[in-house]
Amino acid sequence: MKHIHYDSLNSTNEQAKLLLNEHDSIIITADEQSGGKGRKNRTWVGDKGKNLYCSIGIRHRIHSKTLEPHSYQFAGAIIAYKAITRIVPKEQVRLKFPNDIMVKDADGKFRKICGILTEHIFYGNTLQATIIGIGINVEQKEFPDEVKDIATSLSRMGYGVTVHDIFNFLFDIASDYKFDSDSVIYEEWHDLVGIEGRIVRLVSDGQEYLITEVFDDGRLQAENISDSSIKIIDDGDSIRYEYE
What we know:
By secondary structure, this protein is of the alpha+beta class. The protein is built from four helices and twelve strands, in the order βαββαββββααβββββ. The strands form two sheets. The protein has a seven-stranded mixed beta sheet with strand order 1-2-3-7-6-5-4, with helices on both faces.
């Protein structure tokens, strides 16, 4: 897997898409990105050189096994989780549905330290390529007002690691990762997210639901606490729940 680093990019995901014309697999990093994206078209922002801005690009060969698209999203979350838990004890790290990574800060509150955005390129119905964008807050100590109470970094947690350190962990894990079984990847993601049996609040309607099943494509079957009606929640829905 080839690694290319840039001083500045609009988006590591977009650059990975371009370079997949030349490479089967690639990891793009940048000291800063001006147009980094999060889920639901949110902007991913951070100080230059203080955080890991990274995209893993994979071109799918026609005659090789290609996973279901959602498996690459699961895999991205697993890879990032494993990199972070090289530093932070596992008991302080949670994978939030569907693919944010939360860590227990010094005050005992879980805050977001990592986000993953997976994008796919199709030709007709055939999956041609996948880009897994990963952002990890590393050395940044101050955050904008709108996220300062919900975000943290390895530095704010007291870890004296650099962006280079965390990238080396992630690169090793991503390079060795086996993208060869939907069921194996799902089971690992399912165990890490640990949401089955939890009560969640759906932001769109303010209702509470019990998660009764996690489907193999990542959707959740949920039972309304007040009237026992059943709802299917997908990764486009925002939910809130406790991580302990």
